[in-house]
Amino acid sequence: MKRFSRDIFKRDVLPWFFLVPAIISFALFKYYPILLGFFVSFFEVNIVDLPGTFIGFDNYIRAFQDEDFLNAIVNTFQFLCISLLINFWVPILLATLINEVRHGKTFMRTMYFIPAVAPGIAMSVLWKYIWQPDYGLANYIMKVLGLPTQKWLNDPLLVKWCMQFPGLIIGGGLTMVIYLAALQDVPEEQHESALLDGAGFLRRIFCISLPQIKPIVLTMLVLAVIDVFNMFDNVQIMTGGGPSGATETMVLYAYDQAYTFLNYGYAITLSCLTFLCVFVLTAIQMSIGGDSLISRKDKKRTRRLRAAHLKAKEE
Amino acid sequence: MPALQRVELKSKKGKVTYGLIMGILALGIPVQIFPYVWILLSMFKANKEVRAIPPTFFPNEWLWENIPETFSKYHLEQNLLNSFLLCAGVILLQVSISTLAAFALSKLRPKGSKWVMTFFLGTMMINSQALAWPTYIMFTNFFGLRLIDNLWSLILSFSAWAWAIFILKSFFDGLPQDLLESARIDGASNSRILLSIILPLSKPVYAVVILNTFMACYNQFIYPLILLPDSKNWTIMVRIFAIQGSSSATWNQIMVLLGCATLPVLLCYVLAQKYIVQGISMSGLKG
Q1: Which chain A residue lies closest to B189 (C-alpha atoms)?
Q2: Distance to chain B for A151, nearest Cα, Å
Q3: Could you give the number of structural domains in chain A?
Q4: Long-range contacts for B80-84 (Cβ within 8 Å, ≥24 apart)?
Q5: Contacts of B169 in chain A (CB under 8 A)
Q6: Given a cut of 70, is residue A309 above it in pLDDT?
Q7: What residue in B sits closest to A285 (Cα-Cα)?
Q8: Residue-level pLDDT at B203
């Protein structure tokens, strides 16, 4: 009997000592802050004497009456549309093309992946330089082409397009590599037999390759939406939210509320709202992964993909 | 597999299609490496030349002194050091924590470990941007300590990363359970098994995890911006942000800054490309 309980101790209790550091770390630095966030969103936070004064739902009511925040939501949706229009399909196209390469495929993949290695902050600064109205390269190119020069980042109508434009011409990166690997898994026999049936090249791309990677495209679609909701770095660098609030995003607005106006409680309320949006989207994405139309293998793959991609966003 | 079949490549139409694809891709390559080339060349230009219209491609005069000037003006060495210290700290802490957890989840599997995995993976649904300000509030009084302006606040908050545990666990899952059983029969303890059997077999996956941790950590922006307000603690990314917004900065010096910030990650990628791409495909698609 004694021996038996020692075995149980060894098998079921000792291993937990290996898990404890990670459980503490995840509880303390992931779950606790988000709960703390929801807790203090009901307070007028006083940073010296936490949590401050209890004000109930006032922060939330304020958020939905705050024109600047509503403007940030509208901006988010506009960014989303632009991103879907000029960014989302670029990695798919690139992956499809690179997949056809027979000699020097690794070289091509490297060349189209390498821009994604550069720190996003550094690239945002470089693009800010390119869009400069008086000496930037963009206006130089416009002059060379004989087109009227623009104010780019200072133009409320153009600024969102300018910020998403880099994704159009340098759109490879992580997503492209993931699509590429998925395309390589499309069985060759399917293309062979389709060719025998007389299907042309484009027909085969649209009717065989793309349907095969559809689950991944859907996953990436949701991830692209999540990206837009999380926009902060490039906006903060390139425009700081201007001109006249045209690029204010939800995260940036929350940041400004805390950093500039020291409204910590309100800023955290806004953070909680963005968290809820992203949370719902992730839940949608997971249910796409569980769709019965997708085979088990794909399901597994989609779930793993999520992990692969979230790595880029998290931390 | 390529959609264009070998048979087709022999026909004229196939050749044209293939040529067209290669042509488009080849035309795209200069655009892809343009940012790097432009930063590299602008580093050595005079400020006037960086802002010149029409722009010059190669510097008229290679001003090597731009680099030491920028370093001494902004104390970049301090910022780079902060970035590297941060990365080193995170790598040490996070990889050790994740290793222990992944080992237990993969090989020891105590009762209830499935729930623990869900507990870890669940954090992927929390976006880090939303956590930034609550984390700030937490560190203003962290068990009686004020950790704002202290690298530890960042090292600690990055120590929880579900991706690392996920990758390590799936690699450990691939190691045969027999190895473990025979070691256990020989009387090896769990920690002994981890140190002498699992770790030596797992070098490739550690390359993947460490490299990706380094890149993710080095590129962090919003957390250092919030948690390290004092300029002597800034990481290189926060320094870039501060300088590009200040009026005293000149564009050639900003370019030096961008170059110095990009070089470490670029080197990392060039030296260890295999492992970085492997990290994507390991977690993403294969297996």
Answers
A1: A10
A2: 16
A3: 1
A4: B80/B236, B80/B260, B80/B264, B82/B151, B82/B228, B82/B233, B82/B234, B82/B235, B82/B236, B83/B218, B83/B235, B83/B236, B83/B237
A5: none
A6: no
A7: B125
A8: 84
Q: E-assigned strands of B210-285?
A: none
Mean pLDDT for all residues in chain B: 86
Q: With CB atoms and an 8 Å threshold, state whether B190 touches A18.
A: yes
Q: Please state, for a pLDDT cut of 70, what percent of chain B lies above it.
A: 95
Which residues on B lie below 8 Å from A117 (Cβ)? Answer: 215, 265-266, 269
Contact A40, B134 (CB under 8 A): yes
Q: Looking up tokens 């770790």, which residue turns up?
A: B199
Distance CA A151, CA B216 (A): 34
Length of chain B: 287
Query: What's the pLDDT at A269?
Result: 92
In this structure, of A31-45, A210-224, B222-236, the range with the lowest mean pLDDT score is A210-224
| Partner-chain residue, chosen from B3, B54, B137, that has the shortest CB–CB distance to A209 | B3
Chain A 53-92, residues with CB within 8 Å of chain B CB atoms: none
**Sign of the alpha-carbon torsion through B234, B238, B244, B247:** negative
Distances (CA, A) of B1 to A19, A185, A212, B120: 42, 6, 12, 35
Of the partner residues A33, A237, A258, the one whose CB lies closest to the CB of residue B241: A237
Beta bridge partner(s), residue A44: A53
Question: What global pTM score does this model have?
Answer: 0.84
Q: Which amino acid is at B9?
A: L
Q: Where are the domains of chain B?
A: 6-67, 71-284
Whether residue A118 is contained in a domain is answered as yes
CATH of the domain at A214: 1.10.3720.10
CATH code for the part of the protein at B71-284: 1.10.3720.10
Those residues whose C-beta lies under 8 Å from the C-beta of residue B62, and which sit 6 or more positions away, are B44
